[in-house]
Every structure is written in structure tokens, then in C-alpha cells.
Request: fold
Amino acid sequence: MQNLKTSTPDMPQTRPRIGEEVMCVQQVCRGFGKNPSEQLVLDDVDVTLREGEIVGLLGRSGSGKSTLLRIIAGLIPPTSGDVNYLGKPLRGPAEGVAMVFQTFALFPWLTVLENVEAGLEAIGVGPHERRKRALAAIDLIGLDGFENAYPRELSGGMRQRVGLARALAANTDVLLMDEAFSALDPLIRTEMQDQLLELQATLKKTIVFITHDLDEALRIGNQIAILRDGRLIQCGTPDDILHRPADDYVRRFVERRAGTTH
Ligand SMILES: Nc1ncnc2c1ncn2[C@@H]1O[C@H](COP(=O)(O)OP(=O)(O)OP(=O)(O)O)[C@@H](O)[C@H]1O
Ligand SMILES: [Mg+2]
Reply:
């Protein structure tokens, strides 16, 4: 299997070491509408992402998860506060950050290979390099042989693999996943979780993974961040969340999960 990391000469040569700070979000607030500083969707959020870690981002619908992810990606700026990426203020879309969405976001009129290549074309990779990287990423996620298939010919799980291949082909250090597995049925979902963990064992990216499912977060994440109404109420290891909940809200979150397993 081709190693993606060695096949991309245009990536920065110096990646942070495992455990080093990659992204630092400090006192970030974000609002929308006419008075963004009054109606806050994110309120004074601090998060640090470290190289090689997987952060599971949890919270109810509307708690601000996707907004935080978009800020980390540099797709939208915070209303106030700072975002530093590799030690520099983030202004505009972060190079070195790729996103995977719940809805796959594939072009139906393009084949698997063309869909993966399209992501690379968008970031200005030349045709030869594009083909090489796309084929390597398709191989990596186990869709070898489906290069010429169209999205409609694939199952949901396979489509999401294409979405993942597109993000991996960009060979970014940081991978942001917004409920990437939520639309998949439970069996395929577990398979995708396993595959992500397997890939992570060699790729060692920095991943932020939004989910509504505490079990999924506990299974995949080394860190778990819980948002409530735009405030980050706890960020800690799975063990912290399970055994040292920051408040009653987290405790109830955990108890509800325990309740479902009995
Ligand atoms: N572009 C926007 N304009 C106005 N309001 C927005 C915009 N984007 C998000 N919001 C509001 O911000 C709040 C948080 O939205 P966000 O999408 O971050 O939540 P979420 O935690 O990802 O929810 P879900 O689990 O449903 O995806 C919501 O009330 C939403 O309506
Ligand atoms: Mg969302």
C-alpha cells in the first residue's frame, strides 16, 4: 500500500511532533445576524488541538458544534477571540485542513476517481500528481476497483469512503469530520469507525470529529469536548468524562448512556 505521506512533495516538510499544539482556539465568540455580539452561538470557547489526537465534539443540536468546526477550518471568522494555527493567526480557509461532511457532498456526474481528483484540482494540484494521489487515497480506504463507478452505484458506506478518500488525498494534517458517519446504518458505521482508527494508527493526523453519539466519541476520541448552548463545558479524556464529569449536565449525559446499556 502506498504511503500517502511520502507521495505528496508539496506538503510542508515539518509537521508538528505528536502531542505538540496544532490549533489553539482562545476566548472565541461567534454570533450571527444584525447584532452578532449579542446573540452568541459560541460563547468564550477555548480549545487546543494537539498533533495526533482525535477530539470527539459532542453537544445537542444547535449547541454550536458545526460553527466551531467552521471556525477551526477558517471558513468563518470568530466574532471575537483568537484562532492560531501552527502558531500563526488563522485568517481565511486553513491550508492543511480538510473536511468530511455527513451528506458526502459528492458530484453525482463524476466517477469515484474524478470526485477524489476534483478536491485536489480545487486546491491547485496538477493533473499527474492529482491522479497519483487520488489513486493512492482510494486504495488506502479500500475502494480499489471502484475508481470508475458513479456515486449512485455505491452504498452509503462506500460513498462516505469516497468523501474520506477526498479528504485524505489532500494529505492535510488536520481532518475535520462533521457527523461524517451519522447517516450510515449501525453496522457500516462501526466498520467506518474501525477503519478510521486503523488509518489513524499510521497517518496520525489531528482529527476533530463531531458526533451526537457519546459511545462513538468514547470509542474514537482521545479527547472529548462537550458543548452546551455555545459554551464548552468540559474537554477531557474519555476517562475524565466518564468518571470526573465537570457538572450535572455531563453527568446526566453519561448516565443516560449507562442507562441505555442496561
Ligand atoms: N449562518 C448562520 N446564520 C444564522 N444562524 C446560524 C448560522 N449558522 C448557524 N446558526 C445558528 O447557530 C446555532 C448553532 O448552529 P450549529 O450548526 O453550529 O449547531 P450544531 O451543534 O452543529 O447543531 P446540529 O447538531 O443540529 O448540527 C443554531 O442556532 C443555528 O441556527
Ligand atoms: Mg452541526
User: Anything to note?
Assistant: The longest strand covers residues 21-31. The longest helix spans residues 186-203. Residues 32, 41, 59, 61-67 surround adenosine-5'-triphosphate (ligand 1) (CB under 6 Å). Residues 1-12 have pLDDT under 50 and may be disordered.
